[in-house]
Amino acid sequence: MPLVELPAVPGVLTAADIELSGESIAAAQEPDGAIPWFTGGHTDPWDHVESAMALTVAGLWDQARAAYLWSAKTQRGNGSWPAQYRRGVVENFDADTNFCAYIAVGVLHFLTVTDDRDFAVELWPTVRAAIDFVLTLQQDRGEIHWAAGESGSSGDALLTGCASIHHSLRCAIALAEVVGDPHPHWQSAAARLGRALRDHPQAFLDKSRYSMDWYYPILGGALRGAAAHDRIERHWDTFVVADLGIRCVSDAPWVTGAETCELVLTLDAIGEHRRAHELFAAIQHLRDTDGSYWTGLVYIDGKRWPEERTTWTAAAVVLAADALTRTTPANGIFRQWHTGRKDFR
Fold first, then answer.
1. Is residue 341 part of a domain?
2. Domain that includes residue 187, residue range
3. What mean pLDDT is reported for the chain?
4. pLDDT in tens, 271-300
5. How many CB atoms lie within 10 A of CB 306?
6. Coil, strand or helix at 80
7. How many domains does the chain have?
8. From start to end of the chain, where are the E strands?
9. What is the DSSP letter of 338?
10. What is the DSSP string of 228-269?
11. Contact status, residue 49 vs residue 98, Cβ threshold 8 Å
12. What is the CATH number of the domain that holds 307?
């Protein structure tokens, strides 16, 4: 294991705890490098990358490299990936644009932590092809259709997915500068997408019952400043459950770890540090003794549901811990990239 400093959140998680969570993700990784939701579960390209980012923070760089090489090996000729695999077999051939774009965030994150420029250059054709594919589904107003299959585009755009793609585009632009292969049209595409996210809510399907639609425009960087703080306040009481975390959906008594930690990252990005730390501490009731995390809790009856400890939930915890503690060089990848800085500390 490389000699790296691991995040430690005082009074909440130690560096040894973070190491254990990283190992719980690595334990589910398959021989070809894929990281499924849990051992024997399916793999999707987005959560696979999220888990690889957590492996990087936890110092498990060889396992993270294997994950990114899996992405490179399984990419289709048009730059996309199937939406779902299970043990090397494709279960859903459709391409999700958000799933495809996220490789840019992962590779930039890995480069920023490890300073391994050669690996970033090796993965660059994969990132470039993925972003070019995603932008084939961008509409005149700026939104990007969420999926493409044999019959063509889905014809719909999702707010959460497009907000995440906005972040991925900015990371791809930064990575392009590092490898010396700029793509100016990506800049204009990101700007158009940002305007759609801020100014054209009618461009997206109404999924407002989902907490992700609440905070993702901020997490993805399209909203900052007063608009971001106003959005947080407007729906805080709808989604936040004191001392437990946040609801996945507004109309169910179910708190989830990944969404809570993504909100932690969101709050950290806009300077809401007290609330971020409180939510991070609150969600630790989902932690298991091996460092893995249960997906969620139905709090009216105290039952964990679904009955799975998902790699991407542990990954969100690790990434949130890094952001809160400013530990790795990439701790601010959800906070600083939009400022034009070349590092993410």
1. no
2. 15-334
3. 96
4. 999 999 999 999 999 999 999 999 999 999
5. 14
6. coil
7. 1
8. 84-86, 89-92, 95-96, 147-149, 152-153, 240-241, 245-247, 254-256, 296-298, 303-304
9. G
10. HHHHHHHHHHHHEETTTEEESBTTSSEEEHHHHHHHHHHHHH
11. no
12. 1.50.10.10
